[in-house]
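Quick one before lunch.
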Amino acid sequence: MEEKYIQDGKETIVHALKTPFKDDKGNIRLFGLFLDITERKQTEEALRESEQKYRSLFENSHDAIMTLAPPSWKFISGNPATIKMFGAKNEAEFVSYGPWALSPERQPDGRASAEKAREMIEQAMRGGSNFFLWTHKRISGEEFPATVLLSKMTQGENTFLQATVRDITEHKLALDAQAASAAKSQFVANISHEIRTPLNGIIGVCELLLETKISSEQMEYAKIINASAETLLNVINATLDFSKIEAGKMALEHVDFDLRYIVEDIIGVLAVNASKKKLELLDFIEPNVPVHLNGDPSCLRQILFNLIGNAVKFTSKGEIVITVAPVEENEKTASLRFSVRDTGIGIPADKINVLFNAFTQVDTSLARKFGGTGLGLAIAKGFTEQMGGSIGVESAEGKGSLFWFIVPFLKQKPEVARAAEPDMHFEGASILIVDGNETNRLMLAKQLQAWKIDAATAANGPEALEKMRSAANQKRAFTAAILDMRMPEMDGVTLGQTIKADSALKNTILFLMSSITLSPETYRQNKHLFVAMIIKPIRQKHLFYNLLMALKGKDMSAVEEKWVAEFQKHEHYQIGDRLHILVVEDNLASQEVIFNILEKMGHLVNIVANGKEALRDLAMIHYDLVLMDVQMPEMDGLETTSIIRDPKSRVRNHNIPILALTAHAMEGDKEKCLAAGMNGYITKPVSIKTIADAIANITSSGNAPAPKDKKRNSVPVGASLAEATKEICPPPIPAVFDSKAFSNRLSGKIAPMSKIINITLDETPKLMRELERAVKKRQQDAAGRLAHNIRGGAANVSGNQFCAVAVKVETACNAGAWREAENILPELNRQFEILERAMREFQKTLK
Ligand code: ADP
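Model of the adenosine-5'-diphosphate complex:
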C-alpha cells in the first residue's frame, strides 16, 4: 500500500506493509514496514513522461520513424509519417512487409539491397548509429532516394534499432538541377575558350599584317578581317551573354565611347557581305546626336550587329539604311533611336509577335538557306531591355522591314565632348556629290552641310556635268566633287576623265567613292584624276580627314593636326606614355605574345613566371603596372595580389595597378579578381587592342599609373623574340608540324624560331610527366592546367596533331574523365615523339 507523508514540507511516498498482531497482553497491534519509494516513483514518473514525449514525437514527426527488432530485423512499428511515406493503409500493413521488401532488389551501386542492409545494420549495432543514403520502394512499387539514420536502442534486456528515413527526392532534384546548371555554364565557358583560341591566331596575324608595309587597299582589307574577327569574338561573348541573360546574371559596363566608331565599325564589317550582294549599306548619325557617350558599347555593338546582319541576310536587292536620331536629351542623358531599314523579304504580320523569342525563325527552310540560330533577335531584345530600352519592328511582307530600338545613355561631360570635337567648319567650300543612290546622296549632303559645306547633288554623270558647268559660268565653281564609281551610263572614272578634260572644270578636286570591292588596279590606273578614294560605307572621320587633306590650302593646319592625331590614335591604339610593366605569367607561349605586344607598344617589360618571383621583383624595382596571370603554380595571381595589397608586405608600391590576365570570361571570375584587389581584367586571347583598352581604362579611371621616368635603368628580359607568336589550334587539317605557319608567324627569323623550338622540346616532356602524375592522383585542377599549358605550347609551334591530342586530354581532365585521360596519354607521348623528330629536322635546315 502506498502512502504519502508530508515531512518538513517535503512529500515522501512510502510503500507501507502493515500487519496486525497480538502482543503478550493480548492487545491487537499493528506491525508496519515502511519503504521510502519516493525516488523510484519519481523515476517511474519521469520514464512515463519521457515515454509519452517520445510517443508524441514518434507520432507527429515529419520524418518517417520505424523500429526494427533482431534477429530477423523485421519492422515492429512505424509512425504515421512512415505509413504515409510508404503508402501503407495502417501500421499493421506496414509491419507485415518483410525487412527488405520496401527496397528495390538492388541499390544504385549495384549491390543487393538485402546484403547491403545487413551490413548497414551491423555497422549501426557496432558503432551505435549509422547514417547513409538508401533507395527505398513504396508499396506502389515507386522508388525514391532517402537518407537513413539507424540508431541502436536498448529497453531492458532488449536491443532494437530505430530508423529515421527522410525522402530526399526534391532535394536531389534541386541538387541535380544545380549540378546541371553548373555543368552548362562550364560548358559554355569551355566552348567559348575553344573558339577564342583559333581566333587569337586570326587577330594576331592580322595585327602583324597591319604592322607591315602594305598598300592602303590591303590595309583596308586587313582592317576588315581584324574587325570581323573582333566581332566574332563579340559573338562568342554574346553567346556567353545569352546564357547570362537567361540566368539573370548580365552585368552592364559603363565606359566612355564614341558612338560613331561603334556604328561605323559594324557597318565596315558587314559591308563585305552587303557589297557582295550589291546592296547599298548606308548609315547616318543625325548631326544633333551626342556621340560622346557613356554606357555599354559591347551591348550596343551586339544589338546593331544582329539587326544589320539580319537586314543584309534577308535582303537581296536595294539598300540597308541605318540611322541614329535623338529622342530625348537633357544635360546628363540622351535617349537615342537606332533604326535599321531594309528592302528585303519582310515579315508576315502573324509572325511579328513571336520574332523576338529565342530560337524563332519565320521560315525554317529559309533559315537553312541563310543560316542562323534564331537567337539574334532574342539577344537584341535581352540587351535593349537590360539597358533600359525597348525594341520593335515594322514590316510588310515583300517590301522590307524596319527594326528599331531606343536606349538611354549617359553623356560624357561637355568639356570632354568639346575637347574631342574641334570646330568642324569648311566654310566657303562647295562640294558636288554624284551618286545614283538617292539615300546616299541625301545623307552625304546632310553630313557635309553639318560641316558648313555648301553641298549639292547630282544623280548621274550628265546631270553632274551640267551643274558643274553652270556653277563655273556663274564663277561659283565647285571646290570639289565626290564621284561614285558605280553609276549607269557614265561611271565615276569616265565622269572624272570628262571633268579633267574640261578646262573650265579641271581645277575641281575629285574624290572617287566606291565600295570596297573596287579593284585597287582601277583606282591606281586613274590616280591622276582623283586625290583620294573614299570607301563606302563611309566613315565620318575618314571622310573628314580626306576632305581636310585635300582642301589643305585653306589654312586649317591647327584643326588638321588635332584631327590627324585623333584619327591615328583610334586607328593604331598607340599609347603615348612609356610604362614599366611587370608581367607575371607561367606559360612560355603567352609570355612571348604579351612581351611582343607590349614592346611593340613601346613599353618596358619584365617577365616573371610566378607570384613569388613577382613579389621579389616588386620589392626591388619600381613598376607602373602589373599584368598578372590568375592560374599559376607556386603562388596564384589572387594570392599574390592580396600580398601586394597587404601594407605589411615588402613590395615598394602597395597601390600599383594590377590587371588580371585570365582565360575565363564568366561572370564571377571578374569579381574574384577585383575582390582580390586587382584593378581590371584582360580576357585571353590578348591582342594589342585588349591590352591598350585595359591600360587606357585604368588610366582614365583615375587609377593612373605613376608618371614615368624615361631614363629609368631597367632591362627588358630576354632577347626580342621578333614577332608575336600566337596560339593557333586546332587547324582544319591536322599536320604533324606546320613549319610554314610557324615560320610565317616569326617572319622567318632563325634565332627566335630555334629558341622557341628548344623551349618547347625542353619544357613539354617535363609538363607531360607532371601531367601524368596529376592524372594518376586525380588532381583535377593541376591536370587541367598542365594539359592546357601543353596544348598552348603545341599550338605555339604549330604542332597541330600533337595539339589536337592535347586538347582531348585537357577536355577529359577538365571533365574528370580520368580513364579517358589515361587512355589518351600514351597517344600524347607518341605524338610528341613524332613532333620532336619533325621539329629537329626543321631545326637542322635553319643552320
Ligand atoms: P537568325 O539567326 O535565324 O537570323 P534571329 O533571331 O536574328 O535569328 O531572327 C529570327 C528570324 O526573324 C529570322 O530567321 C527571320 O525569319 C526573321 N528576320 C529577322 N530579321 C529579318 C529581316 N530584316 N527581314 C526579314 N526577316 C527577318
